[in-house]
Amino acid sequence: MSHPEEVDDDLLDLEDAAEEIENSADDIAMDSDAEDEGGEEDEDEEVLLQNDSIAYFDLPPDSLFTIAQHPVHPSLVAVGGSAGPQEDAPGAGWLLDTSAAASRPVLPASYASNPAETPKSTQLDSLFALEGHTDSINTLAWTLPRGEFLVSGGLDGRVKVWKADTRPGAVEMTPVGDAQEVEEVNWISPCPSPNHQNTVALGASDGSVWVYTIDASDASNPLQIVQSYFLHTAPCTAGAWTPDGHLLATVSEDSSLYVWDVWGDAAARNVTGENGMTVVSLTGEDQRFEVDGGLYSIVIDPKGSFVATGGAGGAVKVVSLPRLSAADATAGGQILASLHTQGDSVESLAVSLTATTPPTTLLAAGSVDGSICVYDAARRFAVRRHIAAAHEDHSVVRLEFVKNTWLLTSCGMDGVVRRWDLRSGGATDRGLVNEWKGHRGGGEGGGVMGFVQGETGERVVTAGDDGVVLVFEA
Predict the structure, then answer these.
(1) Which residues contact residue 254 at a Cβ distance below 8 angstroms, ignoring those fewer than 6 apart?
(2) Angle 249-252-257 from CA coordinates, rounded to 5°
(3) Where are the residues of the annotated region Disordered (predicted)?
């Protein structure tokens, strides 16, 4: 397969890069000089924590690693993590209904009838406990299109499925079955194809990739294996379906990218690789694609025209995807851009096709160095904005655009969730339009490990490394 010369970020003109944005907002205000009434210095340091949440869930005894939102009923949110700090602690998860969270008044507190009464957060209750994992739950997903099933994956290598019967004001969860083919499950992604409903893909620590279809009517085999792939030679770290669900792209610590023809749609149009399984196959043996240290994140644009991968050293590789239209089927696999703006591993990627005229495709990358870099696909992935200290010196854990907008939401190990307006001349000079605090922060043990925000972004629900779920309102 021939590849055109890659676009190197180092060759961009200076005017292509927008402003570098510093953000030095403090998460925690501390008073270390507090004295008691007798003039003696208090032995206990007073720590003042800011909590912007409208609701919370604090039943988990240890870290939460993953969160998933129901595709039809966005108030239903599942979280998963560890049931305790011990090495042999089982996994634990919970199902919550965030609609119980009471909104805060729009007017400032000074307009309240009794300003001394500060608004209180609503305590959320568990609707259902996800049990049965012998090690931490580190990935959750609802099946598409209707969220009929909730699927969990754990560090015990087990995949468990529950059927969700949702009714007005109530939800009933019924265990369907489980499977265990690998040592550890790293991620689960639901297939969006209307022709292959209730199907999920997963990636494992041994590099394997599995595709299951769930059929609750078959009690003897409710998790039916559709495909399994074994080309990755190191842990499979991330995966994503194309918007139509025809293709599945996965990456690995061995610096490989494979785009799998799961359903044979590409082969039917004579678009397939030599191995008969993939339509794109790139590894570190191709020096243009090599990322020393591996790949850890992946995203596909809403039009299904390219896949972007992020990895060690701040590397971002953008690769074209095949077109499978009956009239004009074309191959993919061309390296469209090779970017190295950030200084450390890129472990989160997000993409948006803005609802503007003309529409703009934005690619955002979050790095372990605490920065966010935004690229403009229409300008050969030139740097549009580099927010150098988006989460200070703490890792950016997750990025997600509010659907079809210029608004980007981020969370980090500093325990803060932020929202950025990426339009030129946003609401502030820095582009920061919202900031929500409440998690402990401070790096390891207190960061935000994930969030969901629905399609409108009006409410953001987080999963914290401190074992707390918080609901924020925009």
Answers:
(1) 207, 232, 233, 234, 283, 284, 294
(2) 40
(3) 20-46
Phi and psi for 235 in degrees, rounded to 5? -50, 135
Residue that has been written with the tokens 């995203």 in this structure: 299
Amino acid at position 183, single letter = E
Q: Under CATH, which architecture does the 50-104+118-228 domain have? A: 7 Propeller (2.130)
User: What's the farthest any 2 CA atoms get from each other in the chain?
Assistant: 85
d(CA 405, CA 387): 18
CB 374 within 8 A of CB 423: no
Helix (H, G, I), strand (E, B) or coil at 378: helix
**For 404-423, how does the pLDDT look when each residue is reduced to its tens digit (9 = 90+)?**
999 999 999 999 999 999 98
261: Cα separation from own chain's centroid: 24
User: Domain spans of the chain?
Assistant: 50-104+118-228, 231-326
Contact 150, 142 (CB under 8 A): yes
Preceding peptide of 145 cis, ω within 30° = yes
The model carries a pTM of 0.87
Contacts of 455 (CB under 8 A, 6+ apart): 74, 402, 403
64-75 tens-digit pLDDT: 999 999 999 999
Residue 198's beta-bridge partner residues? none
Collect all residues with Cβ–Cβ distance below 8 Å to 291 and sequence separation of at least 6. 255, 284, 311, 312, 313, 315, 317
